[in-house]
Specification:
Length: 76
């Protein structure tokens, strides 16, 4: 379990990875920046879980980039 942070398009992105009751890796994602806040949890996605923490982290960061890109385009 870990917390990872990065900046993307002026958004501070924070991802917390953890294992669920079936030992699969899931994530909680938060991002805050000029266009607002984003909060997502892979726990809400019934069929989505990863075998490794690295896979869960990469999926969370990819989702953050997609969501932030959409917000960024809306505010241009």
């Amino acid at each position: 379990m870990g917390t990872h942070s990065t900046v993307y398009h002026d958004y501070m992105v924070t991802v917390e990875t953890k294992q669920n009751e079936r030992s699969a890796w899931i994530f909680d994602l938060r991002a805050e920046g000029p266009g607002g806040k984003i909060a997502r949890s892979s726990e809400q996605q019934v069929t989505t879980a990863w075998l490794t923490e690295a896979e869960a982290l990469e999926a969370a960061l990819e989702e953050a980039r997609l969501l932030i890109d959409r917000l960024h385009e809306q505010h241009e």
